[in-house]
Amino acid sequence: MKIIEILKDTIPFLLKGSVITIYLSLISGILAVIIGVIGGLCRKSRIFIIRWISSLYIRIFRGTPLLIQLYVAYFVLPFFGITFNVWQTSIGVLAFNGGAYVSEIVRAGIEAIPKEQTEAALSLGMTPFLKMRLIIMPQAIRIIIPPIVGTLILLVKGTSVTSLIGIFNLDKVGRELVVASFKNPLVIFSLVALFYFLICYPLYFFSTRIEKKLRLHYNSL
User: In the chain, what are the domains?
Assistant: First the structure.
């Protein structure tokens, strides 16, 4: 009975925290994919400065912890006159952090396409844009979707660090419930883990379904 009482008292609050976590994940995930595709294409640019800037961005965001990036954006940048609120900071840092990983996935997917196809496209008189849009990217998508979804799942779990600057996400709600009510932490944190799993599982399911459909499509060609 005690567990049932804990469930009744905590689940409504955890649902509210889950909504915030989903919102953060959705907005930052979409931005991460957009940034990642642009970054991946920039890594393959013929212009040195574009390649250098995209490479520097990727190295910085992949080479430093997400938590430190969050602290720098929220606590350090205001010293230089650049101020963001907690939502802007959280979404921005998550998006650029995830985008750095997606950039490398996109770059690797493009490089996985045989060079002969690129040469064939150029021999047909295709511009670099048409080559990328019609030949390279349609094949690269089949390769990059699973790891991109894996990155988005990590991004969902990464939203937990935003609680440290005041976002009442699922992680913070769970900790606040334990501290405020002194209820069984085992039950509450188990529920938090369950909610994270329920948020992440649709992404995994979507990934496997899309991967199977793409595999069947290319096997039928």
Answer: 2-219 (1.10.3720.10)
